[in-house]
Design goal:
Distance between the termini of chain B: 39 Å
Largest sheet of chain A: 2 strands, antiparallel
Strand content of chain B: 15-25%
Low-confidence stretches of chain B: 1-8
CATH superfamily of the domain at 10-79 and 168-176 and 198-250 in chain B: P-loop containing nucleotide triphosphate hydrolases
Pfam families (chain A): BPD_transp_2
CATH architecture of chain A: Orthogonal Bundle
Mean pLDDT of chain B: 89
Helix content of chain B: 25-40%
Number of strands of chain A: 4
CATH class of chain A: Mainly Alpha
Number of helices of chain B: 9
Radius of gyration of chain A: 23 Å
Strand order of the largest sheet of chain B: 6-7-8-3-9-10
Oligomer: heterodimer
CATH class of the domain at 10-79 and 168-176 and 198-250 in chain B: Alpha Beta
Low-confidence stretches of chain A: 335-351
Subcellular location (chain A): Cell membrane
Membrane topology (chain A): Multi-pass membrane protein
Order of helices and strands of chain B: EEEHEEHEHHHEHEHEEHH
Strand content of chain A: under 5%
Number of strands of chain B: 10
Helix content of chain A: 55-70%
Strand order of the largest sheet of chain A: 1-4
Protein name (chain A): Branched-chain amino acid transport system permease protein
CATH topology of the domain at 10-79 and 168-176 and 198-250 in chain B: Rossmann fold
Keywords (chain A): Cell membrane, Membrane, Transmembrane, Transmembrane helix
Radius of gyration of chain B: 18 Å
Largest sheet of chain B: 6 strands, mixed
Structural class of chain B: alpha/beta
Largest interface: A-B, 39 and 51 residues
Shape of chain B: globular
Number of domains of chain A: 1
Number of helices of chain A: 15
Structural class of chain A: mainly alpha
Chain lengths: ~350, ~250
Amino acid sequence: MSQDPAIRVERWTPLSRISILGAAIVLAILATGPLFFDNNAIDKLTTLFIYVILAVTWNALAGYGGLVSVGQQAFFGLGAYAAVRLADAGVNVYASLILAAVIIAAVSLPISSFMLRLKGGEFAIGMWVVAELCHLLVNLDSLVQGETGTSLIALNAYEADTRHALNYWVALGSMTVILVILFVLLRSRIGSAIQAIRDNEEAAAALGVRVMGTKRIIFVFAAFGAALAGALWLATAITFQPKTYFGVQWTAYMIFMVLVGGLGTFEGAILGALIFFLIEAWFGASGVWYLVGLGATALIFSLFVPRGIWGWLERRYGLNLLPLGYRILGIRPAARTAIPNDGAAPSAGTS
Amino acid sequence: MDQSVSEAKGQPIITVTGLQKRFRALVVLDQIDFSMRADEAVGIVGPNGAGKTTFLSVLVGAHPPTSGTINFLGEDVTDVPASERCRRGIVRTHQIPRPFGGMTVFENVFVAAANGGNFAREEGYERALDSLRLCGMFHLANRRAETLGLLDRKRLELARALATNPKLLLLDEIGGGLTDGEANELVATIRELRRRNIAIVWIEHIVHILLEVADRLICMDQGRIIADGDPAMVMKTPAVVEAYLGGSAE
């Protein structure tokens, strides 16, 4: 069976190279933001970066791993709490934000050992229970003073303008790192393994995929992302009240962003975060009706556009800016007819 | 490119001793003793509910046996998890196909090559493409698996299994619903696998296809092996004829 030199496996397209370049340029421009924007705009964009982190890490867990969790606020809250604790212990406040996320990722490892034994809805609700437990435990800490909460007082060491700019840069840098890690991770063999587990766990195991270890990588990564987002949120909000950080609304936001943008598409989660950010900016002040609108939109999308905006674009126009998969080039069409005649069919006996 | 056939042909590739599988009070496999050599192709027949599929599930580690041992290539693998057994060379296809629907056909097969076969990237590509060609699926490489029809899903089961570079391939009714032409193609493919020194166990209801390939036949009934040996002889055994309620190979 001779090899056709035209046949090869494509992982990068010209369009995807342009997309990466475009993304790099956008990020570079954003990095100069604090030099031009006022504090209000800086804070808004910082919020957007945090939303992107939340959306892409939940998408990694649910969209690629099939692990639908409604308890990611556990790690969001723990990330903020760990940052408070570290700063209180004298660690530099910005170092403590990053360190907090690393510590919580380590904490998520033993949690994964028992949570990942649960399947489907049990896992989803079980994670919520974990979040409630974490909430209660954090409330016991005398530093937090129950629901009275505490503040990241160490931020006072920075002048207001510097603080806003530092928050912005740390959030932008965190988002960039998360996006790069996730892109590389999902394009690696771990990425295809986790999707195989999502689609059929038993078949994946039967084909040699190490199910538990692969799930654990995605779970810990998603916990790291949520914890980092929580710590960054603390830096922008300064105050730490447990119930605002451990509230289930954080996961509701993540689900909204990913459902609208496109579950299981890399670009979709980013788009979803942007859409959520704009909706909040325009309608966030409308109180209850804002929440009703969010819920209704998520419902409409899951019923009528189940793949989200990006999933729809991808199917309709073959649009794929940041491809994670594999494409085989050089397939001659109509290779298979009633009588195989091109030597490609296994039944051809002559050589 | 085939591995050397240095292992003595007479050595058993797999040996099963006193295998029993119960689901609560229901005994599905009852004291199975079975052994085969690496150069054999063993067909398994038997009425529905005989325990054939469960036997494969226990061999690959999808279900733990209630008692008994499984020895593969001289090592006890009874407690080895399914993914590791696949990496050592035991793989199966599923009677009801289980494609990874959200991935392309190539990606389905590449996952098998990269994990079960433990091939590095470029080798994995070659392996996956080769498996697709062998199963007549190459032209479908970029299709999402969820868009495949039943026949192509069955072919995909075989292509994925082959990509893991198996030493022992367990086939569960992949011949059902084929036309004569397709069945001949399948037989040619399986013969090619035997040339590649893959030991084969094949459960099939369509006995005449099975007899084209198998050089040994086992008949199971109610969780037991009731006949084992030369295919023609097994099909004439009174117990086998009775299990099939008077049906015959022809």
